[in-house]
Amino acid sequence: MAIKKHGSANWSGTLKDGTGKVSTQTGVLKGQPYGFKTRFEGETGTNPEELIGAAHASCFAMALSGQLGQHDLEAEEITATSTVSLEKGDAGFSITKIHLDVTAKVPGANDDTFQTAAKAAKEGCPVSKVLAGAEITMDAKLVG
Q1: Rounded to two decimals, what is the model's pTM?
Q2: Counted domains in the chain
Q3: Burial 104-116 (b: 16+ CB within 10 A, else e)
C-alpha cells in the first residue's frame, strides 16, 4: 500500500518579479507566499529549501524515535534542524549539502547507543533517501 501526499504551487510572472503561493494537502500551508525575494533576498515568505529542511527534520526526528525504540529507549525530546545549502555552480543552482543538527533528551541512553540510532535514522529516513544526491552531514548530541 502506497501512502500518497501532495503539495501544490501556483506561480505568476517572471522569475525575479513574479510571485507564487504554496499549499499542502492538509491545509497547514495554504497559499503561503514564495518567490525570488523570499528565496534569495530574505523577504517574508517561504522557499523550497526551508520546506525541504522542515520535511527532512520532521522525518528524521520520527525515524530517530523509531530507532531509539528498537533499543527500548523513549525520547523525552528530540530537536532536529536540517540546513539545506543552495549553491550556484557552472550548471546553475543545486542543493549541494544538507546538515542535520540534533539534540535529544533520552533517559537511560548512553552516547554509543544514541549515535548508532542517530546514524541509522539519518540513513533510513525516507526524506534522507530522496535527498541522497546531496551530501548529508550531522551533529547529534545526547543531552542530560
Answers
A1: 0.90
A2: 2
A3: bebeebeeebbee
